[in-house]
Design brief:
4-stranded antiparallel sheet; 21% helix; globular; 6-stranded antiparallel sheet; alpha+beta; 45% strand; Jelly Rolls; 1 helix
Amino acid sequence: MSTCFRPEMRRVRRMNAAYRAAGASCLSLLLLAGTAANAAAQKATTAPAAGQTVMLAPDVEAHQRLAEQLTVPVARGRTQALTVGLGDWQLLGHKGEIRVPAQKFFYVAELRTGSVTTMIGSERVTRNTGDIWTVPAGQVMTVTLGPRQETGLLRILTLEPTR
């Protein structure tokens, strides 16, 4: 390799290290926020096991496709055990609001079909197919289906600290 590329390679390595550190910091913040919210989520439900389908509420059917245990670095050489899950939540149609109960875990939701209006805390947002948003642990989400819609489908990524 020519010596003129070596300084560039050092810069690339430094940038990669910075991206890894930033990613670990973001994950640490998410884990800490999830852990703090966990204390407030005493009545919340946990994620179903992989391959399991459960009713989270009368109008919310959850199918868990994947549930894996991971250990991730958080800070100063410490690690955090984490359960990561991927699944679908079917919002069973009717007119009016669908209440998704508080969960013990932080989750990321992606609307797979149609349009909905969500209410998380005091924030009401209209969402369309492909929109992605987060819901903190212990937070109730209320969903209103779009006009002429009987069902909705959410892809859910869960992040749950394990002890």
